[in-house]
Design a protein that fits this description.
This protein has 14 helices and 18 strands. By secondary structure, the chain is α/β, with parallel strands linked by helices. The protein has one domain (4-539): FAD/NAD(P)-binding domain, CATH 3.50.50. Strand 1 (38-43), helix 3 and strand 2 form a beta-alpha-beta unit. Helix 3 (47-58) runs parallel beside helix 14 (523-539), helix 6 (148-161) packs across helix 14 and helix 7 (186-197) crosses helix 13. The longest helix is centred in the C-terminal third of the chain and has 20 residues, at 445-464. It is globular and about 70 Å long. It starts with a helix and ends with a helix. Residues 417-530 form the Glucose-methanol-choline oxidoreductase C-terminal domain. InterPro entries: FAD/NAD-bd_sf, GMC_OxRdtase_N, GMC_OxRtase_C.
C-alpha cells in the first residue's frame, strides 16, 4: 500500500515539537555550484514550485529551487500579530491600472520559501469537473486541454499529504477527506444556522489544517492567526509539507535569490539555465531544464524580461499570450451584527462553506457562479471594512468596540478570463534594474452580476441567522492565469503537461497556467497540477 509517508515524509521531518524542519536538513542541504548543470532549476518555492521540487528530488533528479525571499523559520520569523506580518507579502514595486484596478499584496502575493501559502487562509476545495470545459458547456471562459479525471488522483494525493480536514463533500465530484472536520466557531455556527434557515446546504471544511497530530505536526490551537503564518505549523504550507522531504532527498533551496531572466540558446532553442542575483552579485546557474513557478504576476514578468533575439517580445510570447487572461476572483465580504457575542476570530478564518451556487444556473442572467465561506477579519482588516462604509471618528470607535458581536462571510466569484486583463512591463525599474510589472484589469458585466448575486445571498444567510445589521465591502482575492494552458501555441503558453510550446525544456508550474479559476481557492489545484506535471516529466524527461 502506497501510504502518505511513502510519498512524502515531511511531517516526520519536523522537530519533535513541530516548530520547524529538522535543522540538519538545511545545515546539511546539498549545495550545487553554478557551474554544475543541474537537471532542473525551479524559479519559486510556493505551491507549484515546491511540489515539483519534492517530486523530482524523490525521483533522483539534481534539482535546485530559487526564491527571492528568505527561508523562513516559523518560530523565529513569524508573529501572531496582524500588523507584524507584512514581511510575508510580496511588497516589491508593481503598477496597477485598468477600469477596475486590483490591489496587490497581502491577499494574493507571497515572498519567501512557501510562497503565498505561508499566509493563505488554509482553505483547499477542489475545482469542479465543469471548470475544465466552461466554454463548451457555458459559452464563456475557456476549455482546459485536460479534464477533471486526469487531475483527480493528484487531488487525492495532495489532500492526504497536507492533510485536509472536512465533512464529506457533496458538490462537484463528491468525495471524502482524510481528517474529520474541525469543531466550528461562533462564526461557523452562525453560517450553518443561517444557511439551514435559508434552505441552503453548507458543510464544514475543507481546511489544510491537521485535526489531531500528524507526524510531528501539532493540532490547531484555534488562535485565528492563519493569515499571519501559522507559528504552530498546524496549517499546511509547502515550507513544512513538501520542502523538508525535498531536502531529505537531495534538493537544494536557494533562498534570497532573485531570478532575473531565463537563458535560451539561440541555436538550439533550449533553456540552458537562469540568471539570478544573490547578495548583490549577478550569477548564472546552468540547468538541463528550467521550470518557472513565480505565480501570476512574476511569472509573466520574468518571461517578458527574458526577451532575446529569438524572442524579441518576451520568452514564449510569439503569439502575444504571455501576461494575458490574468484573473482575480471577486471576493465581497458581508458582515452581520448579532446581539450575542460571536468572537469570529476564534478559528481558522474559512471553516464552513457552501458551493450550492458554484455552477451556471440557466435561470440566472449570468454564467458560472460563486461559493461562500466564513471569513474572520482581524481588527485592522475589520477597521478597513468598517471605514469602507464611511464610518469615521466616534462612529468608527463604536463599531470597533462592537467587534465581538459581528460575524462575517466571504464569497469567491468566478470572474471570467479576458485577453485585455494582462501583465505588461512598465517603464519603472526595480532595485535589480528590471522593468516592474504593470497589471491592468477591468470587470465585465457578468463579473459585476455575480458579485451582486453573491452579496444578496450572504445577506440572506446572515439575516436568516438573526443579524440586526449587515454591511458589505467589495474586494478581490486570488490571482490565476497569465501563462495559461492551451491545446496549441495559438491558444496557450503551455500544454497540458505544463511544458511551454516555444521552448521544449521550459515548464511553468504555478497558478499562471490555469485557463479558468472556478469559485474555489486555487492552492490545491495548483499543487495537483504541479504533481501531475512532475509525473509526466519523470515518465518522459527527454521529450
Amino acid at each position: 500500500m502506497n501510504t502518505v509517508r511513502d510519498r512524502n515524509d515531511s511531517a516526520w521531518l519536523l522537530t519533535a515539537d513541530g516548530s520547524r524542519a529538522e535543522p540538519r536538513l538545511t545545515e546539511q542541504m546539498r549545495r550545487y555550484a553554478d557551474s554544475d548543470e543541474v537537471d532542473i532549476a525551479i524559479v519559486g518555492c510556493g505551491a507549484g514550485g515546491s511540489v515539483l521540487l519534492q517530486r523530482l528530488a524523490r525521483a533522483g533528479w539534481d534539482a535546485v529551487a530559487f526564491d527571492a525571499g528568505p527561508f523562513w523559520d516559523p518560530a523565529r520569523d513569524w508573529v501572531s500579530d496582524e500588523a507584524g506580518s507584512h514581511h510575508l507579502y510580496w511588497t516589491e514595486p508593481r503598477q496597477i491600472g485598468g477600469a477596475d484596478p486590483v490591489p496587490l499584496g497581502s491577499n494574493n502575493s507571497g515572498r519567501g520559501v512557501g510562497g503565498s501559502m505561508v499566509h493563505y487562509a488554509g482553505y483547499v476545495p477542489r475545482f469542479h469537473p465543469s471548470d475544465f470545459h466552461t466554454f463548451s458547456a457555458d459559452g464563456v471562459g475557456a476549455d482546459w486541454p485536460l479534464e477533471y479525471p486526469e487531475l483527480a488522483p493528484y487531488y487525492d494525493d495532495i489532500e492526504n499529504e497536507l492533510p485536509v480536514a472536512g465533512e464529506d463533500w457533496p458538490w462537484g465530484d463528491p468525495h471524502r477527506y482524510p481528517h474529520r472536520p474541525h469543531p466550528v466557531s461562533g462564526n461557523g455556527e452562525t453560517f450553518l444556522r443561517g444557511a439551514y434557515a435559508a434552505g441552503i446546504e453548507a458543510k464544514v471544511g475543507p481546511v489544510a489544517i491537521t485535526n489531531g497530530r500528524f507526524g510531528h505536526r501539532p493540532h490547531c490551537v484555534y488562535r485565528g492567526f492563519c493569515l499571519q503564518g501559522c507559528k504552530v505549523n498546524a496549517k499546511a504550507s509547502p515550507l513544512i509539507t513538501h520542502i523538508p522531504d525535498a531536502l531529505a532527498h537531495g534538493a537544494e533551496v536557494r533562498a534570497d535569490s532573485m531570478v532575473t531572466s531565463v537563458e535560451v540558446d539561440q541555436f538550439t532553442g533550449r533553456a540552458t539555465g537562469v540568471h539570478y542575483v544573490k547578495d548583490g552579485v549577478p550569477r548564472f546557474q546552468k540547468a538541463r531544464m528550467v521550470a518557472i513557478a513565480g505565480y501570476s504576476i512574476e511569472t509573466p514578468r520574468l518571461l517578458l524580461n527574458s526577451a532575446s533575439a529569438r524572442f524579441p517580445d518576451g520568452l514564449c510570447n510569439d503569439f502575444d499570450l504571455v501576461g494575458r487572461y490574468l484573473m482575480v476572483q471577486g471576493a465581497p465580504q458581508t458582515a452581520g451584527r448579532f446581539e450575542q457575542e460571536i468572537r469570529m476570530w476564534k478559528a481558522p478564518p474559512p471553516e464552513v462553506s457552501t458551493e450550492e451556487f458554484y455552477e451556471t444556473d440557466p435561470g440566472k442572467p449570468y454564467k458560472r457562479g460563486y461559493s461562500i465561506q466564513t471569513v474572520s477579519p482581524l481588527p485592522i482588516t475589520w477597521a478597513e471594512h468598517v471605514m469602507a462604509q464611511g464610518h469615521w471618528g466616534a462612529d468608527l470607535r463604536r463599531y470597533m468596540s462592537d467587534y465581538v458581536h459581528w460575524a462575517c462571510l466571504g464569497a469567491l466569484c468566478e470572474f471570467l478570463p479576458r485577453a485585455e486583463n494582462r501583465v505588461t512591463l512598465a517603464d519603472e525599474k526595480d532595485r535589480y534594474g528590471l522593468p516592474i510589472a504593470h497589471f491592468a484589469y477591468a470587470q465585465c458585466d457578468n463579473d459585476r452580476a455575480l458579485a451582486k448575486a453573491a452579496q444578496a445571498t450572504m445577506e440572506r444567510i446572515l439575516e436568516a441567522a438573526g443579524a440586526q445589521e449587515t454591511m458589505t465591502v467589495q474586494r478581490y482575492a486570488h490571482l490565476v492565469g497569465g501563462a495559461r494552458m492551451g491545446a496549441d501555441e495559438t491558444q496557450g503558453v503551455v500544454d497540458a503537461d505544463c511544458r511551454t510550446f516555444a521552448v521544449p525544456n521550459l515548464l511553468i508550474t504555478d497558478g499562471s497556467v490555469l485557463p479558468t479559476q472556478g469559485s474555489a481557492n486555487p492552492a490545491l489545484t495548483i499543487m495537483a497540477v504541479a504533481a501531475r506535471a512532475a509525473d509526466r516529466l519523470i515518465q518522459r524527461p527527454e521529450d
